[in-house]
């Protein structure tokens, strides 16, 4: 599903984890993702991403994560998001 | 997996189907996708997309399709591709 990152903060006492608040249509949820080394919080607010949303919740460092962000790497090995080709996609839109 | 569209042609006698030749690293394969109403062939050559590549082959109008292209819709209901956030990603790169 297409999700929009509406808030992000690094998880304390970890190097890699970022706590994301993502919007899926009218609902928001919390997802913890291992992207803290690759991105600054301020650069990813508003980004449209792909979220696997139908997973069991997982507790990561005391935070309940509800989904998984799809990621890949660029030619330099840096993390990149997978997302819609056009930004005029509403969060909550299904991928098929 | 990240795939690059290297060739595209509409499937004759159908309205929706497009036959795509996609590159995955050093290999290419054929995928049939229902995108012919939304895209012109010439506009999508070179595009980096997300391909589900580990599916059973499927015969569509006599063409063996080896994978599925991830798609979503924009706010106007038009089809859009799902792809890497940065174009400097090599085809064949894994998504996780």
Number of helices of chain A: 1
Q: What is the subunit arrangement here? A: homodimer
Mean pLDDT of chain A: 96
The most extensive contact between chains is: A-B, 24 and 24 residues
Radius of gyration of chain A, in Å, reads: 13 Å
Amino- and carboxy-terminal Cα gap of chain A: 9 Å
Low-confidence runs of chain A: none
Number of extended strands of chain A: 9
Helical residues, percent of chain A: under 10%
Apparent shape of chain A: globular
Strand % of chain A is over 45%
Strand order of the largest sheet of chain A: 3-2-1-4-7
Sequence of secondary-structure elements of chain A = EEEHEEEEEE
Can you describe this structure?
Two copies of one chain form a homodimer. Chain A has one helix at residues 41-44, and strands spanning 2-10, 18-24, 27-33, 48-52, 58-60, 63-65, 68-69, 71-73, 79-84. A five-stranded antiparallel sheet of chain A has the order 3-2-1-4-7. Chain A has a two-stranded antiparallel ribbon with strand order 5-6. Chain A is globular, with a radius of gyration of 13 Å. The model of chain A has no long low-confidence stretch (mean pLDDT 96). With 96 residues, chain A is mainly beta.
Characteristic key phrases:
homodimer; 96 residues; mainly beta; 5-stranded antiparallel β-sheet; two-stranded antiparallel ribbon; 9 strands; globular
């Amino acid at each position: 599903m297409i999700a929009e990152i509406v808030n992000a903060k690094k998880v304390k006492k970890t190097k890699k984890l970022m706590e994301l608040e993502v919007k899926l249509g009218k609902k928001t949820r919390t997802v913890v993702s291992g992207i803290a080394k690759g991105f600054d919080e301020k650069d990813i607010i508003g980004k449209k991403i792909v979220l696997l949303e139908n997973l069991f919740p997982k507790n990561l460092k005391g935070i309940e994560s509800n989904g998984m962000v799809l990621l890949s790497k660029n030619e330099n090995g840096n993390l990149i998001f997978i997302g819609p080709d056009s930004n005029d996609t509403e969060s909550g839109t299904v991928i098929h």
